[in-house]
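Re: the pair you flagged

First of the two:
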Amino acid sequence: MLGEYRITGRRASDIAASVERGVGAGDLAPGQLLPPMRELATRLGVNPNTVAAAYRTLRERGVIETAGRRGSRVRSRPASTARDSLRVDAPPGVRQISDGNPDVALLPRLYDAFAAAARRHDERPVLYGEAPVDPELARLARAGLDADGVPDGPIAVTSGSLDAIERVLVAHLRPGDAVAVEDPGWGSLLDLIPALGLRPVPVALDEDGPRPDEVARALDAGARALIVTCRAQNPTGAVITAQRAEKLRDILARHPQVLLVEDDHGHAIVDQPLHPLAGVTDLWVLVRSTAKAYGPDLRLAVLTGDALTVDRVLGRQRLGPGWVGRLVQRAVVELWRSGVVDPAAVARAYGERRDALLRALAGRGIEAYGRSGMNVWVPVADETGAVARLLHAGWAVAPGARFRMSAPPGIRLTVSGLTMADIETLADAVASAAGPMPARSFG
């Protein structure tokens, strides 16, 4: 039924990841019939409910489809259903802390910035044939990157971080190539990689970022790209420290042809210094988005990198949308110039809530993580049960399945909507819902 490919795993998440790897590598072709659940359970020596849970996850992610007695098959267009479909809706009376949104009270008003951009447009409209990047935006972006020690490189502008990363991967990789990615990590990125026909290779991390041994293992095994989050890692809040960056650079120096992608989405909302890896490999990019500081609907990210990669991104962009609207670019320039957002104050506001929750959880014997950003990650033994119990207690949290491949179970709590008065009540609910603690953390 499956030819030479063998599905492996003892947990539902491992079984689902095994199928996804087979699909991404092309070993499981579109339309491929999967084994009946009981047959696979017997083969793996697990409970049929475990296989049922794995198949359910694969259906929710759009990897497979089930047609009653005709069984389960790999979809003709696999991996097209976002992990966000695993979100927990908050019914009336339930607090929503699962969505990862910023605190609206910390976002700037955009009216004045867009009004100023519109006035500039009225004075001198942008026409076809002009440069895709506003010169003043490029200058200000480059100055900020220089201050953070990011190597010199040309600037491109995309419609958000995920758009930038997709364009970079397509510029260099081909279906079947392996991409090393953080696990747990950003759910949308974990969706994008197999959707492009690429093969995700999970890399475990700890509070200091991707573990060097895991990165070395993935690159030695042939991964052609490595994607890391510099700060405010989603969902764990990990930060790449100076010591960790030095070790990762040493590993990358042994693989100069690897494509390095650094996501610095938290640069305007965190107070942790940047320790870039860029420049060690021949192919590299660093991406900065405005979403967390100015709101998700301001669809703009700045990308810098080696000349070849940025040129390919800009060239392909010209054949699609052409460019990100200069009105949007100029509005961002106005926001940067005005200093309407104080990154230190924003980082302090998120940090006070995050640290208070971590202290409250620790006081109740709960292991939790969140060094930066707006999220706290709590390892749990029974993810589904913890989510359900918290929902019953009045809190909608994000299930770890949205962010995991092979990593142990957990839940993500977004602190941006919390007040200090909420902390103790939430900590009590988490302590009651978490159950027996797992044997190991996300690292």
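Second of the two:
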Amino acid sequence: MKYKVPALAVVAVLLFSCSSKSNIPTVEVPKEKVLSPELAEGKSLFENSCGRCHQLYNAKDFSAEQWKPIVKRMQKEANLDDAQGLKIYNYLTMN
């Protein structure tokens, strides 16, 4: 009995120190933004109208002020009306 308690303590310490410490990396899945119908239409217009002629820019490449003349100029090139241009602008500047 005298040796059982210390022996159990040693076994417990050994088991605890030898247990695997698995550090499974967690992968964060970026949350997809839920777009309103207007923003979804702006995204679609941007991808289909603008992407038809050239590679699309990342929305964060330009500030909201910088996007204004770009969208206005390209709206004319793509034969889009003001409402469609505004939807594209709103989509690009939503962040």
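The mean pLDDT is 84.

-B.
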